[in-house]
Amino acid sequence: LSGARARANALRAKLENRSAHADVVKYCRAELVEENYFHAVLEAMKGVAERIRSMSGLTTDGAELVNEAFSTKNPMLTINPLSTETELSEQKGFANILVGLFGAVRNPTAHAPKIAWPITEHDALDILSTLSFVHRRLDSASKR
Questions:
Q1: Cα four-point dihedral sign 55, 58, 63, 67
Q2: Which strand (E) or helix (H) includes residue 89?
Q3: How confident is the model at residue 112 (pLDDT cuts 50, 70, 90)?
Q4: Dihedral of the CA atoms 26, 53, 64, 80 (nearest 10)?
Q5: CA-derived radius of gyration, the chain
Q6: Is 99 exposed, middle or buried (0-12, 13-18, 19+ CB in 10 A)?
Q7: How confident is residue 4, by pLDDT bands cut at 50, 70 and 90?
Q8: What is the pLDDT of residue 3?
Q9: Residue 142: what are its φ and ψ, rounded to 5°?
Q10: Which of 66, 1, 55 is nearest to 23 (CA)?
Q11: For a 10 Å CB count at each end of the chain, is N or C smaller?
Q12: Are 61 and 73 in contact (CB under 8 A)?
């Protein structure tokens, strides 16, 4: 137990050094304690999907959820006023980041066995830091 606590505290300290958003750890605390980076990343990604569903009222998942929620033609959620080409580009780019995360991170962890898709602590920290960026952008997103 003390070893698991020490590992969890060390990893939490690394996330804190990166100023990780609280919602990142909220969804994967138990997996981080176990150094189960594969499932920590999966749970953290599921947390992003859940947050987008909660904010938008949508019930879909993955790319479909993102594309519907962050569309530039009829968005459910916006990360800016969408009044300039730059803002439209930023909205599209944010959606692309999310679609990429679902395709490159969530889907392999949801569909491949852990031994076929190993995740190191370093990779997990990078992925969780990217999810932290996503949560910060969601903090200031508006519902339309």
A1: negative
A2: helix 85-101
A3: confident
A4: -90
A5: 16
A6: middle
A7: low
A8: 66
A9: -115, 145
A10: 55
A11: N
A12: no
